[in-house]
């Protein structure tokens, strides 16, 4: 079944029962204490699933886990699946699923928060877990799930301010669908464009769990080219030098990345993360044609359809040596810093209402 416009997927939402201020504060306090452990649990569970795009059974298991997690948070009546044809190169009929939770009024301007749940297939046996994908991208899915828990508490205010938040877990960010119309995020972004939805912006969680306090643990363009087995071209050396001057050598910060059209959104999110005083945040907004590597996740799909979008990331292989390897395991992540990212994004939404 081809993707349906989101308007056809979302039931008529009704405002939830209002929580008193004291109740909201108490819930926030509980979340602050337990959020790192909950994030850890989600990552552990997802890493037990061989959820690469070439394994339909594993992908369905990931979908089931995501839905079950949101159901246990009391969001079960808000869950929808966006099912679409993901066949490629004569592979036969294949279907993939985005999992969506919508909060707030149906027809309001919306914020999209998304993360892909698939991993990059490694090896010939797609049913083996040769790439657990803890950072890429269980960390982001865990963050997405817990963002849903946070925003559920303030949904009444979303109705008051006429703002909608769609939380979307995407299929097919990794090869062979990477940067094609078979990406779950591309399907979702296109459905928004086709339905004329009003989109304030999109936030992509992409690898939010790996942090390193060692000097020179953070790489830039030179490391990106080495990762792909190439030398940094001479014309990019000035840009690489500038990045190293402007940004830290320690991989202990979170990045907010936007294209030029998304610079206002990137700056606002970066400001909110900094305001919490718990995690160092750095933002970068440049034309994607000038620096194509900023297109390397699901925010690309929304840029292609004219929507402002940012990627929140630990910078992937520019920092994490376990990228797409068997060593990308739950014990390598920093769950306290992941919690700070989730709290920061939740606070950004709160500030909008």
Number of domains: 1
Shape: globular
Query: What's the mean pLDDT score?
Result: 91
- Could you say what the CATH architecture is? 3-Layer(aba) Sandwich
Number of helices: 11
Q: Can you summarize the main beta sheet?
A: 8 strands, mixed
What CATH calls the topology is Aminopeptidase
Strand order of the largest sheet: 1-2-4-3-5-8-6-7
The CATH homologous superfamily corresponds to Zn peptidases
CATH class type: Alpha Beta
Instruction: List the secondary-structure elements in sequence, H or E.
Output: HHHEEEHHEHEHHEHEHEH
| C-alpha-based Rg, rounded | 19 Å
Strand content: 15-25%
Portion of residues within helices: 25-40%
Distance between the termini: 36 Å
In total, how many beta strands? Answer: 8
Would you tell me the structural class of the helices and strands?
A: alpha/beta
Characterise this structure.
It is a single chain. Strands 1-2-4-3-5-8-6-7 form an 8-stranded mixed beta sheet, sandwiched between helices. α9 (263-275) links the parallel β6 (254-258) and β7. The chain has one domain (6-10, 34-213, 251-352): Aminopeptidase, CATH 3.40.630. α2 (21-46) packs across α11, α4 (134-152) crosses α11 (335-352) and α9 packs across α11 (335-352). With 353 residues, it is α/β, with parallel strands linked by helices. The protein has helices at residues 6-9, 21-46, 56-72, 134-152, 155-160, 184-195, 221-227, 237-246, 263-275, 299-304, 335-352; strands at 79-85, 95-103, 109-116, 163-170, 199-206, 254-258, 281-285, 309-313.
